[in-house]
Write a structure and sequence with these properties.
single chain; alpha/beta
């Protein structure tokens, strides 16, 4: 019997990701057309490394030893009409208070008004998941009718059994009922196929959704330390 892994699914537009602009006010965002997926997360959960692994570009999102460096909404173009949105990291005490206060209205306007937003990917560290800021963001996104998909990142730091137990515990929490989640590792690529499939479903026109690619898969860890 052949036990080899099936061909990995890769949503090809992610490999073509290119930085477009950073914005600090909602009015600076690109025209609200096409489709986009946003990635959010507390500082130091590996959000930038997740973006780099997702796009197979080790330096697309800067990985820094100083958490909280993502201080604006960063827009990445994929194929025409498709975007990845990197939302500001939150919860890092050394970020100036005035800057932290400015994120709230910006994120609120973005989540409430952006019609091209298809889903919100929320990155958490599986060893320290679901803090108060995460709860606030999930609650607000739900109130805006935005689907949330939780990535339990750094799953490689736990045994498989321990990681599955932690995910099961989170799924039993009443406030997380109905919130999709998966195990993920931005260092090893665990869960990458599943995430590519989801993003393809959110972003791709229907005629493109069944087109996997496999060449050039690179699961080499990103250089640098913990990121924003």
């Amino acid at each position: 019997m052949n036990h080899t892994n099936p061909t990995p699914f890769r949503f090809a537009p992610l490999r073509r990701a290119s930085f477009r602009l950073s914005v600090t006010q909602a009015g600076q965002l690109p025209p609200d057309d096409g489709a986009e997926v946003a990635i959010a997360g507390r500082s130091n959960v590996g959000k930038s490394s997740t973006l780099n692994m997702l796009t197979e570009r080790r330096a697309l999102a800067r990985v820094s030893r100083t958490p909280g460096r993502t201080q604006a909404i960063n827009v990445f173009d994929l194929d025409p009409g498709q975007r990845l949105i990197d939302l500001p990291g939150y919860g890092y005490a050394k970020v100036p208070e005035a800057l932290r206060r400015s994120w709230g209205p910006l994120l609120e306007q973005y989540l409430r008004r952006r019609s091209s937003l298809r889903a919100l990917i929320l990155v958490m560290d599986i060893r320290h998941p679901y803090g108060p800021h995460d709860a606030d963001l999930i609650g607000f996104a739900a109130g805006c009718g935005r689907p949330v998909h939780v990535l339990l990142n750094k799953a490689d730091k736990l045994s498989r059994g321990a990681a599955l137990q932690e995910m099961a515990r989170l799924r039993r929490m009443p406030e997380l009922q109905g919130v999709a989640m998966q195990l993920f590792s931005a260092q090893t690529g665990q869960g990458l196929d599943e995430l590519h499939q989801l993003i393809a479903g959110w972003l791709a026109p229907s005629e493109q959704k069944e087109t996997p690619t496999s060449a050039g898969v690179n699961n080499e860890p990103s250089k640098g330390g913990e990121d924003s």
